[in-house]
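To fix ideas, we reproduce below a protein record of this kind.
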Amino acid sequence: MDQYLIKKMIAFRKKSFIQISQETLVSLFPFFLLTTFAMVFSESVFSENGYINNLFSIRSWFPYFRGTGLALTNFTALTGGLAGPLTSYFSAKYTAGHYGRSTGTAGITAFVFSLLINSRDLFTRSLNDGDLTRINLPVNINLVVAILIGYAVGQIFRFSSSSDDRIVDAHYIYHPKSVRPIVQSLALAVLGSFLVYLGNTYNVFSTIGNFFSSLIVNRNNLWVILSNSFLRTFGAWIGNSNPFNDIPFVNDSYALDNLNYALKHHTTAGVPYLFSETNLYDAYGTFAGLGGSLALLIAILWRSRSTKDRDVGIKSIFPALFNHGVAFMVGIPVFFNFLFLIPFVLIPVVNSLIAGIMLYFRVMPPAVYPVPSGTPSVLYAFIGTGGSLRALAVGGLIFVVDVLIYLPFVKFNDRIHEEINQLDDEKGADHD
């Protein structure tokens, strides 16, 4: 049975689109790693409400606190915003390369395609000489869309004539036909930008966004919280970070009511909303990171035989501890990886369910207090409960459960890697 599953997984991974998607994600790893490091320092160290800042009073003794924080915030916004165009670039590059076409030209074309799609002023005003159209590049992106943009551009290059993707030949002779796939791609980008303009004008995208956001219902109900946890993590697994963002503490009416009750009565016992997003999902559902990514990282460092995966885990552990595991998730990769889909979406549900049972039997107090920004996920419950060791112990139990859930998948992933390496070695021997 195991050998059958391994063969199926290998056959699936060898499909061209899956190969291109995974190559794209792995190529994004150094950019995402740099961005997440900057995010940790921006949110936790050089922020007024940052966890490390509050812990060591950095603002009181570091003279360039505000300027450093501003630079880091802008840097993360810039590099994070470029994640979409970079994803399209790598996707187009690997798609064109897969079919023997010019990788560099296809990649740059997809990068410009992404900028045109995200242009705000292309159809709204004339630009003066030296102006650059305002481009909407949010940090929260949809990796699926970005990969598909690059894949479409790569396919345009694939179906063009073999001479169309050359700019110069070996004799440095310019080929006018090389503009054909570029013109076709950019024309499609302008058309796409126009459709985006119409969608924004008639509130199509805001309506769609509100619909998906409405799927996350904030109610004082355990089963609703569990379903929300599933939707959030599945949305993240497909690379979509927009519709299922966490509800901020100040916008969570149940969390605010619980906080007011605790401040008024000087106790968390008897809070009006025991099963809230803050008590379950924020404090325990993501105790080991989004989708239990930190638990997967620990499982890989503990038992994996893959040198590549262990290297990615070591490099990613610092930002992952501070709730920024996206670099780790593209480096493995976890996104679009069906092997890790089940534990990724299951772990937050299991965590929230365990926490709900523990709260019902009053094993630990509810997490009613706001936590500083950039607080490590493993400390959210401890700080949110006002320093309850029982909450920390329950969190530790949950973390162990998460690691144990991931262990068999990590071992199975090693077997797939070894089987692929063996097949590659045999293929190389045949060529010899």
User: Anything to note?
Assistant: Residues 389-431 form the longest helix (43 residues).
